[in-house]
Design a protein that fits this description.
The longest helix is centred in the first third of the chain and has 25 residues. The protein has 11 helices and 12 strands. It starts with 5 loop residues before the first strand and ends in a 10-residue tail after the last strand. 40% of the residues lie in helices and 19% in strands. The strands form 2 sheets. It has a 10-stranded mixed sheet, with helices on both faces. A two-stranded parallel ribbon has the order 3-12. It has 2 domains: 156 residues, Rossmann fold (3-Layer(aba) Sandwich), CATH 3.40.50.12370; 161 residues, Rossmann fold, CATH 3.40.50. By secondary structure, it is of the alpha/beta class.
């Protein structure tokens, strides 16, 4: 596996007096021996009405905002350098935020994106805020979402795999999940735990045979569960996972993963996600999206190696809104 040489941290609000997310990213970069770029995207639209009212041109406003944000980020960069981390910063007018983050990560050659989880009202208890949701969906790079301000010290890292490939995840993705989990646990002096939510579905068993009875379905499900346990054991053997660090749990991953994370007092869950397109993604989503709202810890989401982002590489620049018809330009 390629080393994590460069990390991009998306600074949500450079003006915040306290920056626990930045401090955590600095700690992670130091332990991994990686460089760190602090990035902030200015995505707020600029209304043309402001120009005659304030006497400031759009170009001047753009440059002032960039300079102000960059000055704040440079102070955070200095903090990272004092702690022995090679760091830099960048600010861009670009939108929407998730696209801006992905674009900058690709441009600067990042191997990992770290972002702070967006709290706030959601359509459903499990549904992520839009920026988090789309960042996970569209980034080909691993994305670490920080849900907790707690610094990792000898962290418990829980890697969630699916050796039955019941959710359209390719086999190599499980290996990548465990490898990333091992890397982080080793670098931070922690411990890796590996789990499989063994949850076979009866849907396929009921199709095409109206005469099938409940007892037959139960036997077939038991057989699928046995195969799931066998496949997980084989995968864990290949991955050199000690027996005490293996966990096969029954139930839907959306509930089983957060439950085990709490039981183990995990600091980080590492899991895979397969992007879906069309309306189906809005109503079904994927496991990573569904469980994030229930996790008590940080989560690292990894995509299959063949995944390619469709985000345009060129920044959109400043978003300028035309004058409102109902808002007079002068008093």
């Amino acid at each position: 596996m390629e080393p994590l040489r460069r990390i991009l941290f998306a600074v949500k609000d450079p003006e915040r007096p306290s920056q626990p997310g930045v401090d955590k990213a600095i700690h992670i970069a130091k332990q991994l021996g990686a460089s760190l770029e602090l990035f902030n995207a200015i995505s707020t639209p600029v209304f043309l009405e402001l120009q005659p009212l304030t006497g400031t041109s759009v170009a001047e406003l753009r440059d002032e905002a960039l300079a102000s944000r960059r000055k704040r980020l440079e102070k955070l960069v200095a903090r990272a350098r004092r702690r022995g981390v090679k760091a830099s910063c960048s600010v861009e007018w670009d939108y929407p935020p998730h696209e801006a983050i992905i674009r900058r990560a690709e441009t600067c050659g990042a191997d990992l994106i770290i972002a702070e989880y967006h709290e706030g009202k959601r359509l459903k208890p499990w549904l992520l805020r839009l920026t988090d949701w789309e960042l996970l969906r569209n980034s080909r790079l691993p994305v670490l979402l920080l849900r907790s301000e707690r610094r990792w010290r000898k962290p418990v890292v829980l890697a969630a795999v699916d050796p039955s490939h019941a959710r359209d995840k390719p086999a190599r993705l499980d290996t990548a999940i465990v490898d990333q989990g091992k890397r982080l646990a080793r670098a931070l002096g922690g411990k890796l735990e590996v789990m499989h939510a063994n949850n076979p579905s009866a849907v396929g068993l009921l199709v095409g045979d109206p005469a099938i009875d409940g007892a037959t379905v139960a036997v077939a499900l038991e057989e699928q569960q046995r195969l799931g346990r066998k496949r997980f054991a084989k995968f864990a053997d290949r991955s050199d996972i000690p027996q005490p660090q293996r966990h096969v749990v029954a139930g839907d991953p959306a509930t089983a993963i957060p439950r085990l994370a709490r039981a183990l007092d995990a600091d980080l869950v590492v899991m895979g996600a397969v992007s879906r397109s069309g309306l189906k993604r809005v109503f079904i989503g994927n496991t990573a999206e569904k469980i994030l709202g229930s996790l008590p810890c940080d989560v690292l989401v990894i995509k299959p190696s063949h995944f390619r982002s469709r985000i345009a590489r060129k920044p959109r620049g400043m978003r300028v809104a035309a004058p409102s018809a109902y808002m007079p330009l002068t008093a």
